Structure formats: C-alpha cells, structure tokens
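User: My collaborator sent over this chain with a note saying "see what the structure looks like." That's all I know about it. Can you take a look?
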Amino acid sequence: MMMTKRAPGLVRAIGGVGATVARHAGGMGILAWRTLAALVRGQVSLRDFTGQLFAMGVQSLPLVLVTSVLSGIVTSQQGGYQFTGSIPLYVLGSVVTSSVVLELGPVLTAVVVIGRVGARITAELGTMQVSEQIDALYSLGRDPVKVLAAPRILAGMPAMVLLVGISNLVGVLAGMLAARLTVGLGHATFFYGARLFWHSYDFFYSEMKAWAFGLLIPLISVHMGLLTRGGAEGVGRSTTASVVFMIIAVLVCDALFPPLFLN
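Assistant: Without extra context I'll predict from the sequence alone. Here is the result:
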C-alpha cells in the first residue's frame, strides 16, 4: 500500500527531471545552431572573439599551470610508492604520462575553466538579463546570440585545446622531476618508460576531450545565463546551477570517451 501511494509521486518526480533535461537540451541545441549560423554568415565579431579567447585562455593559464604541476607530482609520488620493489621503475614514466595525458590534464583543466570562466560567463549574462540589458539589445535590433553568446562559445574550444596541451606537457615534466627527486628515476629512464607504452593516438584523444569540454562549458554557461530570472538572488541561483550542470556534463562526457574512442 505504501509503495502504491508513493508511485504517482515518484513518477511525477522522474517526469519532472526528464522534462527539465529535455528543455535544457533543446535550448542548448537551438543556441548551438544559432551560433553556428552566425559563424557561417560571418556575423561574429573578430574583436569580441579574440577578447574572449584571451580571457578564457591566457588569463586562465596560471591556475592551469599550478593544477597541472600538482597533478604530475602527485601521480609520480603515488606511482613511485606503489611500484617500489615490485615493478620496474621505468614503468612509472608510462603511468605518469598516460594518466596526465589521457585523464588528469583534460579533466582538471576543464574543472579550472568551469570555476574561473564558466561561472563568470553565467554571472555576466545573468546580470545583463535581470537588468534588462538583453532586452535593450533586442529593442535596438541586435541579436544577443551574435553579440554575446557566439564569441564566448566559439572561443571556448581553441582556448581549451591550447590549455590542455600546455597542461599535459607541464604535468609530464613535473612528474618526471618528482620521480627523480623521490625514487631517483633518471630522465632517460623516465622517457624510456613513457615511450615504451606510448601511442600517438593518446595525444589526439586528449585534444578531442579538450574540444568537447571547450564546447560544453561555454554553451552551458551562456544558456544558463540567458535563462536567469529574479534579480540578484536569481543570478546566484543560476550561477550555482550552471556550475553543477557543467561539472556533471564534463564528467559524463569524460565517462563516454573510453568506450567510444579507446575500445
């Protein structure tokens, strides 16, 4: 009887979640299509694009470097602790390189960009929405997607590709230095292990993740910013929800990559 009484509420809850996901997916699909149309028609300002590329890429670089250095050091230290006395130490070079390039570099860089760039974009556009600046653009005959959304969405992909590439390089070098200091593994031996199990596809796989994350993060943040309602409190709610959605989307996308592109 209890299960019978709770069943309608459970069905409503599941239906509500499904409707919300479908509504957001549809909105982001329309936003992506309008951005692509603006790009094809040459209606995206190059100045706005380069400005967003600088803000997303260059200004995020210090934090990305710190994250990549720490990820390389931690991976090297933990690998050296586990392999000492049981597995040849040159394998540590492969473990650090593969871990950083295939997983830690793209994902940790995406988390940094979410916190620094994604939240900022949602807050900016949300503030413009609640202060009626978006409506003012419509009244002037200008499309907010072309003026505000498209430069941010298009700049996210090349910015992420560059940041992930730098993160991979710095993370591997930091892991190599940590291996030398902790377990005495020489540079030549480290690179021998890295080359022994390296596949040229690994770097391409990492950059594919960067392209996917670089599209998802600004797309979600712009979409949530344009949906903001309810004044300053609404901006806070929208920014929080946007960060949660971006993290979930990045993790789900990351989980889909191995069965789709590695197997």
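A starting point for your reply to your collaborator: The chain has one domain: 47-257.
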